[in-house]
Write a sequence for this structure.
């Protein structure tokens, strides 16, 4: 009855599912990298959430807050995967680490990072973007 509206809902749904897939891929790549490099989880997501919300969650809640921000950001970044070409979407998928966190003053800009850290972050975000785009494109073909 309302094809335009239905199409928008389908795109939103596809984007959220794509974002969930991208988040799962990024989480998996991060867990593998943490194990290989023997490093603890980053506290940057929790610091970002605390700064955006304007409060200190305390040490006990910081990890959960960081996880929640990671998931919400991943879901939100999935939505444009259904709207944008890959050439525009992939840089957007890299924006949390490479633009937002430095803009908040929680990390230096990426050109000041050690090369290995740039490569690691790029790898995680590439895993996110690849998974999100693959799932969104598959859903578009199946349910378009």
């Amino acid at each position: 009855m309302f094809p335009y509206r239905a199409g928008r809902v389908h795109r939103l749904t596809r984007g959220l599912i794509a974002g969930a897939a991208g988040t799962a891929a990024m989480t998996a790549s991060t867990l593998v990298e943490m194990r290989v490099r023997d490093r603890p989880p980053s506290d940057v997501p929790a610091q970002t959430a605390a700064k955006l919300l304007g409060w200190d969650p305390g040490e006990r809640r910081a990890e959960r807050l960081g996880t929640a921000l990671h998931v919400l950001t991943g879901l939100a970044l999935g939505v444009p995967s259904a709207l944008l070409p890959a050439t525009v979407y992939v840089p957007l998928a890299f924006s949390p680490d490479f633009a937002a966190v430095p803009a908040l003053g929680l990390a230096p800009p990426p050109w000041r990072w050690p090369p290995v850290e740039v490569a690691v972050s790029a790898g995680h975000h590439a895993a996110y973007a690849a998974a999100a785009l693959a799932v969104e494109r598959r859903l578009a073909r199946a349910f378009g």
